[in-house]
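ARCHIVE CARD
CATEGORY: sequence design from structure
SOURCE FIELD: tokenized fold
FIELD CONTENT:
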């Protein structure tokens, strides 16, 4: 069996607890290579939380007297004191990542991410999970300065990614739309570009009015206003640099007419570009 494990210290295991808001005790990867069967049976459970992610193959879990076979892309979260019965079989090619961690009772993050009901969650297949698990293992092995803080951030990031992807996969995030997400990335990549929303939708075979409606519901403003907000925020940053004339700032943010740019800037921020430059220069 391929085993890669990292421990906070040599006493860290399923019995470890911490008073910290989030604390990682140990983390590892199990992959059956020759061993026919591997099992864990803890009738009294663990003293901490255990998150198990199936990166490949499948694994079996006994919950409330019922045996579940979970495929890759699923995870199971055991809370402190919950009975743990799980079994890995070579013919099912399991590749499993796991982590034991402590967090406060009634953890707001777990509740916010809908990890409070049930134990089994479909979080999808994402390389980012593997990357985070591997980094957590390495951090536990190397124990570099500030490792506790780094581990806290990484376990929270792992939970956040899983929670977000679970919500998207289960359509719990009603306004989620991949085309809107693509548009946001493009707008931020080159906000100065003369985007025509009709051209954007036509090139992608989208319904213009439906896209406008979906974008507005998802983001809270129209695509045009979103682009303006990006440009005006960029303009504020550029105006703090005295090397740029106001007309140059206008061009860099997508406006050939400096007067129109100035009017739009004042409408957005309540002061003209000149006034903002004077104020920021005195700050």
């Amino acid at each position: 069996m391929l085993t890669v494990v990292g421990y906070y210290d040599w006493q860290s295991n399923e019995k470890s607890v911490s008073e910290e808001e989030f604390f990682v005790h140990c983390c590892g990867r199990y992959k059956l290579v020759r061993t026919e069967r591997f099992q864990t049976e803890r009738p009294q459970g663990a003293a901490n939380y255990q998150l198990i992610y199936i990166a490949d193959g499948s694994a079996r879990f006994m919950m409330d007297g019922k045996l579940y076979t979970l495929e890759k892309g699923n995870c199971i979260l055991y809370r402190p004191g919950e009975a743990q019965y799980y079994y890995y079989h070579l013919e099912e090619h399991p590749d499993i990542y796991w982590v034991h961690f402590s967090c406060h009772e009634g953890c707001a993050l777990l509740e916010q991410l809908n990890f409070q009901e049930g134990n089994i969650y479909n979080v999808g297949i994402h390389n980012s999970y593997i990357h985070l698990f591997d980094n957590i293992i390495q951090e536990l092995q190397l124990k570099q300065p500030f490792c506790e803080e780094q581990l806290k951030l990484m376990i929270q990031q792992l939970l956040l990614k899983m929670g977000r992807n679970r919500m998207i996969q289960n359509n719990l995030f009603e306004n989620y739309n991949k085309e809107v997400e693509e548009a946001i990335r493009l707008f931020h990549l080159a906000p100065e570009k003369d985007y025509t929303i009709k051209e954007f939708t036509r090139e992608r075979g989208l319904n213009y009015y439906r896209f406008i409606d979906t974008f507005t519901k998802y983001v809270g403003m129209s695509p045009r206003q979103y682009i303006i907000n990006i440009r005006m925020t960029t303009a504020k940053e550029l105006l703090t640099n005295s090397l740029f004339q106001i007309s140059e700032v206008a061009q860099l943010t997508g406006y050939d007419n400096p007067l129109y740019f100035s009017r739009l800037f004042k409408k957005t921020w309540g002061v003209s570009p000149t006034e903002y430059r004077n104020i920021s220069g005195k700050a």
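CARD ANNOTATION: The chain has two domains: 2-169, 178-282. DSSP finds ten helices and ten strands in the chain.
SHELF: design records, drawer C
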